[in-house]
Design a protein that fits this description.
The complex is a heterodimer of chains A (about 120) and B (about 110). Helices cover about 0% and strands about 45% of the residues of chain A. With about 120 residues, chain A is mainly β. Classes of the chains: A mainly beta (about 120), B mainly beta (about 110).
């Protein structure tokens, strides 16, 4: 069964940077779009962004709230997807989940495999 | 970009059916059949239970069903069970500034 595991969460000061990693098991990682979704403490889910497969040029899209500050990348040789977060704000405090896009046949598929998340706390 | 609107809480007795609504706009729910639903137990990761409005992933109970009318999508849980007590979130593709929009979330309580 495919699993994804996030890592890299930490306590950071506002304005600083942090990089999260998501490592996936299995041999077909390179065929899936990978997403990041976050959840502030006691709050709802918020989609952060995704990176498509190299077959689609590795295209990336981001939520308006993080565009220009966050960057998603992938390394298919290592089955890893990264979330580089710059200029962090207190409102970026959340559990960050990595989520695989489901093979539903649509161009904007839902998320079927989720990790347990990694906590990012932005505070002075 | 506004979140989709869900009731804060819904409750029901074991064996009953409940329905959770998810209201969006013509930029998301109303114009695209790309609505999904997620179940999240406390301290756990979300789980996909409905996608493309009405489809269920393999392994998801047929007690969960989805529908849509206009700008409102709905999730119905029939034969309510104790394990159904969780938070539920809808999600839709959006043509707005953010491609995926989640709902505000609904806490389901089994009485």
């Amino acid at each position: 069964e495919v699993q994804v595991v996030e890592s890299g969460g930490a306590l950071v000061r506002p304005g600083r940077s942090l990089r999260l990693s998501c490592t996936a098991s299995g041999n077909s990682f390179h065929t899936y779009t990978m997403n990041w979704v976050r959840q502030a403490p006691g709050k709802g889910l918020e989609w952060v962004g995704f990176v498509r497969t190299n077959a689609y040029g590795g295209a990336r899209e981001y939520a308006a709230s993080v565009k220009g500050r966050f960057t998603i990348s992938r390394d298919d040789s290592r089955n890893v997807v990264y979330l580089q977060m710059n200029s962090l704000k207190t409102e970026d405090t959340a559990i960050y989940y990595c989520a695989r896009a489901f093979s539903s046949g649509t161009f904007y598929p839902p998320f079927d495999i989720w990790g347990l998340g990694t906590l990012v706390t932005v505070s002075s | 970009q506004s979140a989709l609107t869900q009731p804060a809480s819904v409750s029901g007795s074991p064996g009953q059916s409940i329905t959770i609504s998810c209201t969006g706009s013509n930029s998301d729910v109303g114009n695209y059949n790309l609505v999904s639903w997620y179940q999240q137990h406390p301290g756990k990761a979300p789980r996909l239970i409905i996608y493309d409005v009405t489809s269920r992933p393999s392994g998801v109970s047929n007690r969960f069903s989805g529908s849509k009318s206009g700008n409102t999508a709905s999730l119905t849980i029939s034969g309510l069970q104790a394990d159904d007590e969780a938070d539920y979130y809808c999600n839709s593709y959006s043509s707005g500034s953010t491609l995926y929009v989640f709902g505000t979330g609904t806490k389901v309580t089994v009485l």
